[in-house]
Amino acid sequence: xxxxxxxxFPIANIPKYAGLYDSPGEAELIAGPVARxxxxxxxxxxxxVAIGKWKSQxxxxxxxxxxxxxxxxxxxxxxxxxTSPRLAIEVLTLLSGIEWxxxxxxxxxxxxxxxxxxxxxxxWSLTVDVPTxxxxxxxxxxxxxxxxxxxxxxxxxxxxxxxxxKYSEMRQRAA
Length: 175
Prior knowledge:
- With 175 residues, the chain is mostly helical.
- The chain has one domain.
- The protein has helices at residues 14-20, 26-40, 45-55, 60-64, 68-79, 85-92, 100-110, 120-125, 136-153, 157-171.
- Helix 6 (85-92) crosses helix 7 (100-110) and helix 9 (136-153) packs across helix 10.
- The radius of gyration is 16 Å and the shape is globular.
């Protein structure tokens, strides 16, 4: 694991914190739009909007302004198996209303490879401050850390993400 990232709680507690996580609508999102996009290899406009809404309500209008054909073209590139990790994350930011955190949600749920969700709560649980701007170098180190943690804990990326988020929600003081 990168020296920049240090888990705030024992790795053995990942399943415990993940089990406490609850996100209304997540199961339906995974069973519906996410499953269809994974099978198809791209998001439709409606699936894109549903995933964006799950992550955050704030950029909804900007996300809704994306032309459906552009959403499908960009997500096809991002979700292709032969697309480099850098292109996969950065191409998604071409979509209006999509910054690195929401782009990471799309990769997390829809890509065949395991990607973590870039979220202030997950970063806090790994003793990392949210950078003033995201870079691919930071993203790559975060992905490597999350993949190593998931492997060491013998959990999938969704379980790790849930644990990191929940631990922060329970412990992080409001700034």
